[in-house]
Amino acid sequence: MSTAEAGTPGGEENHRESSPYLELDRGTWAALASETRSPLTAEEIIRLRGLGDALSLEEVVAVYLPLSRLLSMYVEEAGRLHRRQEEFLHRRTPPRTPFVIGLAGSVAVGKSTTARVLQQMLARWPEHPNVALVTTDGFLYPNAELEKRGLLQRKGFPESYDRRALMKFVVDIKSGRDEVEAPVYSHLIYDVVPDEKVVVRSPDILILEGLNVLQPARVRADGRTGLGLSDFFDFSIFVDAAVNHVRDWYVDRFLKLRETAFRDPSSYFAKYARLTHDEAVDEARRIWDAINGPNLEQNVLPTRSRATLVLRKDADHSVRYVRLRKL
Description:
- The protein is built from 8 helices and 10 strands.
- The protein is of the alpha/beta class.
- The protein has one domain (3-9, 18-325): P-loop containing nucleotide triphosphate hydrolases (Rossmann fold, 3-Layer(aba) Sandwich).
- A hairpin with a 5-residue loop joins strand 9 (309-313) and strand 10 (319-325).
- Helix 3 (57-88) crosses helix 4 (111-122) and helix 7 crosses helix 8 (277-300).
- The longest helix is centred in the first third of the chain and has 32 residues, at 57-88.
- The relative contact order is 0.15.
């Protein structure tokens, strides 16, 4: 087992490149699972496999068990720092604000599966049983508004989100409000659900998952820099893979949806259910090349270096290595 410096060419001691990250290969990272008591029973881990594509039992144990323990340590240390700070300020210790984890990555890379698995595993640690998960999809502008702004074909790009509402949501969470509402998105109708909200009630941990959660703050018209979502994150994760692999996964997912969800008459994409296999492949590639691919290259990938931890996947969806920022 070995822990290499990120960016080390060939592992040669005399040619190390300086890096703020530690890079742990799969074997080194997976070995940490043997040092960690699982918060889940074997039966619960097996049920977790139903949450995502290509998620094996071995992957949950080898990758997500060490990650859930590492995150739990960060949460515990944040609690200790909170208490020390309040003592220093001679204040009666109020409840600590939620620990916020930002989780980013491309369409089809598996970030939603990662978020759901981490939510389940983190909630089993007794120190923080209340773990909320919110996706940024609900903060997309409704389709009618996107069409009005000429952005319907740029859905998922940073400008297609109500960034002010999303920022207010995160600020309210980190301000310690008892209840904070977030809008709900339906992938079936491909739109925000009118008048439907999810209520987040004082969680110990909030996982905020989305394409652009690690975007840096924008420069205002007057030249000043505002705040970015990640300014309020306590930890951030980027789910990464080679672009050609993600493109293949997107096409595969499109074909699976063509046989399932697209067959629902109420689905926004019901028209695709009538496509032949070859037509569906061509359409999925067209959508990727026109929308998701450019968004990944222009907006999502450039934020990878801002993450605290990077999960790098192989062609079979398994995590090949973990890159963790040094403390």
